[in-house]
Amino acid sequence: MLGPILETLIGGLLTGVLYSLVALGFVLIFKASGVFNFAQGVMVLFAALSVARLSEFFPMPIAIALAVVVMIALAYAIEFLVLRRLVNQEGIILFMATLGVTYFLEGFGQTVWGSDIYKIDLGMPKNPIFVLESVFPGGLLIDPSELIAALICAIMVVALAIFFQVTRVGRALRAVADDHQAAQSVGIPLNQIWLMVWAVAGIVALVAGMMWGAKLGVQFSLSLVALKALPVLILGGFTSIPGAIVGGLIIGAGEKLAEVVLGPVLIRMFDLAGGGIENWFAYVLALMFLLVRPQGLFGEKIIERV
User: Contact at 8 Å (CB) between 46 and 212?
Assistant: First the structure.
């Protein structure tokens, strides 16, 4: 029994890293603007669609390079047409703006790229590998494509963490998130910072879209999968890169283990049909965190003095 549970745990952790990568896009925007970017999920979809359709006409490396250009151009368009006109506005106004961008991109992506299901072939190995065969009968099955994707995501996570903590631009991003007007008063160009962070978030969405697209296929439900990053953010904290990592691992492992371990128990106790726990477990766990620790594991507790 230990072998299947451990195998499920490993698979969940690898999936959790992919959740963390999507959550990073949300964290990037929130740290730079102080607003939740509801459009990040559809940006993952749009990026995946770009790679999938461009790869039909160009070799994959060229298709990826062109998709990077597409996402940077998209970031510039969002900053120029939307955000630049909303400087120093309330957070709810910026949130509603990203909500509008979400539905526009979803419709625009369908108009430009179509609504069929597409495949992304990144050339990663597909045959499963078995480890610890001497310890567990038959060994533990690991999907090598998920392992490679997790390594790529881990590298990007570390790079972004270093970028925010060490570089001058990273410190400027944190200053902008704390107070737009104060950041402008000390000479930080707000529009350029927003353009840069949206471009980086677009590239993060591109990597996440390629990984998820290679795993599930590129379809419009991919934007809903990307929203699984919401519980990740609630657990880890909206401004914490380490929180996005830990939250992703908890959600990924928790939902897989809940399906395997908790599912049979609920079926026996309540005579249920079974299945589907993986779809709602993350949100229930996030709700529990909101009731106990709303700022998340790594978020800063806000104390208002009157």
Answer: no
CA distance 6 to 284: 23
CATH number of the structural domain 2-292: 1.10.3470
User: 3-class DSSP state for residue 272?
Assistant: coil
CA torsion through residues 213, 246, 96, 173, sign: negative
pTM: 0.82
- Residues 267-294: tens digit of each pLDDT: 777 766 666 787 888 888 888 888 888 8
Distance CA 166, CA 126 (A): 38
pLDDT tens digits, one per residue of 217-242? 887 777 777 778 889 988 888 878 78
Q: How far apart are CA 191 and CA 300, in angstroms?
A: 26
Q: Are 277 and 262 in contact (CB under 8 A)?
A: yes
- Taking Cα atoms as reference points, which of 226, 229, 206 lies closest to residue 216? 226
Q: Are 239 and 23 in contact (CB under 8 A)?
A: no
